């Protein structure tokens, strides 16, 4: 059987589908995967045959003629409309770049990663069964509406219902209005690096992971990252600052006992006592799967809503954007590090995630979809 995995967005949207694609391939099936051109190494390093689609990076859809990112509106409704329209254009470009592959290779199932609308467009065009993998966060309805409206303007009138919708977020911390579907355990994947002793052992100090996402650049989230580092600098901890290597070189002098660069999250997460991050879905789920308490400083207003159930569960603390002073963030981090209830809640959540069916267990579900599609063709 043939399976085409389609992703849209940055590494945070690509990495969650890698373990499932690997499981399908290990079961003896043919697998192709698609991601934007700059992200292809993430798939190739995972041993997956990959194709570039779209050819532009997500940020390029917002780049102005002077090379800077177009600012997003402050008004949430306007912001949702802009982001929704951008998402539609990314989906349309991805679709057009993959039409030839789908026509020539003819996959039995198309698997769409988080927010990969192009997978739905291809499924509708070719009548191929669709499976989706979603974080299980409550993507704003108005943003989805803006995406669908722009797609209709671009000539796409129909999005099929998936034959199978897999949801990664465990039910106990899933926000109201989030995707409904079949649960699948989140498995952390990161490009491998040579394992060094400091990665799996640590000093007596607490170990704190800091991340502002994989797409940090001079005009995107770098200020968020430096603010997190500044807030944590006075804590008596070891800091692991996870960021692309070229950004690490721009951070300047780091606090004592700090490391910065691209790090293997799946190796390091089990050794961490706290994670401070911007609210990316992969980061949140990876920390939850490893039993790591979290301090989340949402870099978009919607994320505060997404993660309130996680805070209510007791495995995280949220620091809203209007409260994220260094003093406040430092105090919240100290509270989570010293309060045993956060660790206990994180461990309970880890157990819940561990009990969910993993990617290998889901392969048979995808096989049944392929078989049904073949019979109805």
TrEMBL record:
> A single GO BP annotation from the record?
antibiotic biosynthetic process
rRNA processing as a keyword of this entry, yes or no, is: no
One GO molecular function term?
UDP-glycosyltransferase activity
Residue span, Erythromycin biosynthesis protein CIII-like N-terminal domain: 22-213
Keyword DNA-binding in the entry? The reply is: no
What SUPFAM superfamilies does this protein map onto? UDP-Glycosyltransferase/glycogen phosphorylase
The UniProt keywords, alphabetically, are: Glycosyltransferase, Transferase
- Please name the Gene3D superfamilies in this protein's record: Glycogen Phosphorylase B
Where do the Erythromycin biosynthesis protein CIII-like C-terminal domain residues begin and end? Answer: 228-368
UniProt family annotation:
Belongs to the glycosyltransferase 28 family.
Q: What is this protein called?
A: Glycosyltransferase
